[in-house]
Amino acid sequence: MSATMSDPADRSGLEALRHQLEHLGPVVVAFSGGADSAFLAWVAHDTLGPDRVRCVTAVSPSLAPEERADCRALALEWGLRHSEVDTDELADPAYAVNDATRCFHCKSSLMEALAPAAERGMGGQRATVVLGVNLDDLGDHRPGQQAAAERGARFPLVDAGFSKADVRNWSRRLGLRTWDKPAAACLASRVPYGTPVTLGTLRSVTDAESGLRALGFRQLRVRHYGDTARIEVPAEDLPTVVARRLEVSHAVHAAGYRYVTLDLDGFRSGNLNGQLAGGSLVASGGRPQ
Fold first, then answer.
1. Which ranges of 174-225 does DSSP label H, i.e. alpha helix?
2. Residue 280 predicted with pLDDT over 70
C-alpha cells in the first residue's frame, strides 16, 4: 500500500517522514482518529510494519463517542495493531479547574497512560511515543505539546516539515478517507477557560454535538456557557442551520440546554484561546505556549 510517485522530488515530504519513523524505531502512536494521528498511524504502519507499531486510543469523557468508534473502524480497515487505555483527567483538580494549563495536565495524563505500552516495547526494544502534531499546531496555545515533549514524546510530522495542508494532501493522495475529516479537538475545548470541566458538562456537549451530526452537520462546535449553547458551523452552513432551526433547537435542547444560540462569525477552531490574551487565566507555575 506504499505510495508510488513518478517525481523523486514529489516524494520528498513522505520520505522525510518515513526516515524520521525509521530513526525512532518501534513507536506507540497516540491515536485519536483525527486526520493528523490517522495519517501518522498509517505511515508508521506502512513504514515500520505491524510488529513495530502500536496505536493506542485514550478513552475518557473528553473523547466524543463517534471518534472512539472511528478509531476502531480505522484500525480494522488498515490492519493497525490497536488498543485503548482509560485516562481519568477529570480526577485531577488542576485539570478540572480549567485554567490556561488544562491541556498540560491532560497530556500529562495521556503520557502516563501510554508509558506502559512504550516500556513494554516491541521486539525487545523500548518504543517511542509519537503524536500527530504538525507545524500549524505550533502557533496556537497548546501547553499539552510541552507536557508531552517533557515526557519523551516525539512529533515526527513537525520534524519532517508537515503542515496541516500537507497532511491532508498526502492523505488524499494515499487514498486515506481521513483526508478531509473535520478537526475534532477534545470536548473540554468547548468549555471557556475558568468554567470548571465536569462530567455533566462534557455529556451535555457530547449529546448536543452528536445530535447535530445526526442532522448532517460535519464541522461544528457547541460551546458551553452554562445553560446556553453557542453553535459554531462554517459560514456556508449558517443558512442551513437557520432553515432547519427547529430541528437544530430540538437537538440541543434535548442535551439539556435552555438557550440555543448561533455564532454568526462561524466556526473557528481554538477561538476560546482568544480570552487568554490578557494572561489572567494562566495559573501560577503554568506553562502557556
1. 199-214
2. no
